[in-house]
Structures are given as structure tokens and as C-alpha cells.
Fold this sequence. Notes:
Elements: E1 11-15, H1 18-21, H2 44-48, H3 71-85, E2 89-93, H4 96-99, H5 110-125, E3 129-135, H6 141-147, H7 154-169, E4 176-180, H8 190-194, H9 204-229, E5 234-240, E6 244-246, H10 251-273, H11 280-287, H12 297-301, E7 307-311, E8 316-318, E9 342-343, E10 349-350, H13 352-366, E11 370-374, H14 392-410, E12 415-421, E13 441-443, E14 455-457, H15 459-469
Parallel strand pairs: 1-2, 1-12, 2-3, 3-4, 4-5, 5-7, 6-8, 7-11, 11-12
Antiparallel strand pairs: 9-10, 13-14
Helix pairs in contact: 3-5, 7-9, 13-14
Amino acid sequence: MSETAFPDDFLWGGALAANQAEGAWQEGGKGLATVDMLPHGPHRMPIKLGLERRTALRDDEFYPSHQAIDFYHRYKEDIALMAEMGFRVFRTSIAWSRIYPNGDESAPNEAGIAFYRDLFQECRRHNIEPLVTLCHFDVPMHLVTEYGSWRSREMVTFFTRYARTCFEAFNGLVKYWLTFNEINILLHSPFSGAGLAFEEGENPEQVKYQAAHHELLASALATRIAHEVNPENQVGCMLAGGNFYPYSCKPEDVWAALEKDRENLFFIDVQARGAYPAWTARMFKEKGICVQMEPGDAEILRHTVDFVSFSYYASRCASADMNDNNSSAANVVKSLKNPWIQQSQWGWGIDPLGLRITMNMMYDRYQKPLFLVENGLGARDEPDAQGEINDDYRIGYLREHIRAMAQAIEDGIPLMGYTTWGCIDLVSASTGEMSKRYGLVYVDRDDQGGGTLARRRKKSFWWYKQVIASNGRDLG
């Protein structure tokens, strides 16, 4: 690898999300959010998919987000660990229902603003740049029950009010913002992605793409507001990334992969290019979708993002013969199993070259700086007799993906930074498990909520520290 692959100002760090880390689900005036309705166990996936409506908590279920890893009370300790690793950036999110508990209030919850101001000031004390997501898989439940969540255009008003509040309250503390986390997941996991649950007889595709239009409007308006509040603000979109490979060179498989890539990139096409792509007209017609738009919407969408951020865990495979029986259930984004790559313990393909392919594709398509804001390996970590966690498998995964990033940079791609996902163990968004661990720091907590919540450095902690100190030259 070249000595100069990573620029001197490259932002090395890690990422968490409020809904998977904070806990304190009823403290500080916080309102109930969609993630608070997601139990651990067999009902989790039907609720996430919008197939099982859930508006009240049950006494016989465990809700992992309610305490999570208690980052709300332990953030100073956790940020100190990040600083020890040398983080230059920390990606986190604001829980919408901490700022607006119901979502439709005219004035924010000052206790929520005070918490995040303290959090971002703590980052600054350690010379860590906050990278903040406004909506990371959590919508105030009141907006779901009273308005139908993002199916309602009123959500645009509520979100932009919330966004302006954040931009103004944290002006000078935060300059890097993301509007919606993995915005394309709305199409695959509608309730967890956008608070959508379907009514009998509804066309789910119509509901999803109407909600998508409202989110895209809200994102564009938030981007405009951020630039008005402070011209130094930089706003990005966020994609659940990973190219679809054709399962074979059969032309029908190539076309199927192209269609899957288009579906995946639809939101980013609009956020980065400022208009709906041409192919959507035929797709809407064939799916019986009629997106309700108002005069001026096209003009609003022209407020494009400053950079494109994305997660990358795995590439995917598609074929013309793909169906529920032959595609993997390991992820809400369905894929055929790729026989040429290894799989993680949870069945996710491990494909470092796929990261370089994805980065080249996205930069060719958008010509905007990229920011890799999630990348990591979910695995079962078992402390040894001495209490050490020797997660060499995670080090190997991260090492090869950092090498792929370096190759992409040498390909000419401007990459702003890299934040490993779940830099501290947290609740898995997909399964609700703690045993699916991503962190460089171990948290003593199990899938049923037991444990002391004590933090412990893994072997990967020390490895990543040397990576950052060497600006990616020493990968061990």
C-alpha cells in the first residue's frame, strides 16, 4: 500500500446510533419511538417489515433498546475510550423523540437539547469531530399513530422543524450532518426504516414510494436549512451500500442485478443529483404507483447534499430467478449466496474487493466526496480465561476493508473518512441481539438484558489505535 494513500486530514473514527446505544428510553423527557416497540424474539422481524402492527408494549417481551448499553449515562467514559484510540470523528445520532417527544410540538424539549450539547462538547474536549445523523431508524410513535408516519406530507414540516432546531442548537459544535440513516432500507424494512405499517388492501409499493418522496423533500429542505444556518455545515445522504453482482453472465441475470442496484440507489440518485431518475416513470407505472407531488417539489429536490455517505458490510448477488426460497434470510436486503466469498457467522458475505467496486461505482455516478460511515463484522466474542477478547477475525475483516479503501483512494476517489460500525458493542438493529457484536470495546450484556454493562478493550481496540496513529500505514 502506498505511504500516501490516506490524506493527512482523513477522519478516522467509529459509529454508534442513539437507538442502539443510549437506552434511558423514558428519561429526560424522551418520548416513545418506533425502535422502542421492537422486541427481541420472533415478533421483531414481522414488526420491522410493517406486517405486524404494534402500537403498545407487551409485558411478556424484552425490548433491547430500553436500556441498550446505557450510553446516555456513560457517554463520558465511552468517549474517553474513543479518544484513547485516537478517534478524529465520532458518528452518532440524535433521538428525534428526545428533542420533540411527540414529534409535532411547536417547541423542543430543552432537556434533550442539553444532553446532546453536553455530548458534543465532550467530543470537542477530546478533539473529536461529531458526525451526526438526524434520523437513524427512530420516529416518534405519536407521529406513527396520529399521522401514519412518513405516508403523511405533514411529516415534512415536523422533520424540518426538528432539523432546524438541531442545526441552531448545536451550531459551532457540529458541522457534519446526515439526514436519514440508510434511507433505502425504507423499501426493505418499512417500520424500522420509516415507521410504516400497512393496512389491509393497501398497495405497499404505493405507500413506500409516497413515504420516500416525503423523506426526500424533508432531506432536501434540511440540507437547505443547514446551509442557511451556517454555510460551513456539510450535509450528506446515507446509503446501505453494496453492489449487486449478476449471479451469472446470463443476460437476464445481468439485467436483474442492474434493476436491484437502481432500486438501492434510487434515494441517493435524488439526493445527490437533485431529480428523480428517468427509469422511475416506467417502474411506477408497472407497480401501480402514483406519487402525489405538489408544485415546487421539483425545485425543492434540487438542494443536493455535499457528500455521499454509506455503509458497507457485504456485496450481494441477484438473478432473474431470485425468490424468497433461494435468497438469504440473513439480511432484509435479499441476496443469493455468492459461492466465491466467505460468510460471517450471521451469513453476511465478506467481500473487501466489493467495497472498492462500490466506491468506484458511486463516485463514477455522483462525483461527490464519499464517507464510509459503517463497516464492521458482527461476531460472537468470547472472553478467554484471562478475560481477554482476542478478536483476530474482526481485525482481519477490518484490515482487508481498509486496504480496499486505500486502493479506491488511489483510484482517484475522494474519501473523507471511515467510521467502524459499533465501535462499542451495541444492540444489533437487525436481530436485537447483543451477542452479534461489532465493537472494539466489549460491553458486558447478554441477549436477555443481563450483565454489568462494564466496558473492556478487545484486541481490535489496540490494533485500531495503531492504524489511526499511523494514518493507515501500519495495518499490523
